[in-house]
Request: fold
Amino acid sequence: VGHARFAEYVKSGTISHLNDAVQHFQLILDQCPVDHPDHAAALTNLAVARLEGYIGNDLQDIDTTTSLLHKALALRPQGHPDHASSLYNLITALNWRYSKESTAVYIHESAQLCCKLLPLCPEGTFLHSIGVDTLDKLAWALRLRFEQCGNVDDIDESTHLHHEAVSLCPEGHPDCSS
Reply:
């Protein structure tokens, strides 16, 4: 039910669908013990729905979202099959938070997590596309920080990372020319 309502929200933007999805995912999380193997998935489902609402300006509470994603990451340490996707989700939330609040601590944490994620995304795997997107997200975030603070090192690193991301894109990929 939660995934169906969330998909409807993503498609239509109808806030009641988002609210239904969040309520359903919260109910599932409330019923899932911390030591249950699906607890991290329950945290992630709720967090991703809340993040999408935050991105769409339909929810304002990003603190709860990032807290849920931090908890999910803690339950999926390095070596866990979902560790990389947990890092990626948290990076995405931190970047969105930074884009709306311009507080440097969020972009610094995002950059640190990007550095942890990139080695987990080898070429030829599904995770490679996440790695390329992560480089691009970090480049974007550093550009925003440059615009806010004026540190030339940020724009230099942003340009370098963007070029690296483009070079890692498969030939013909729509993002290669950006």
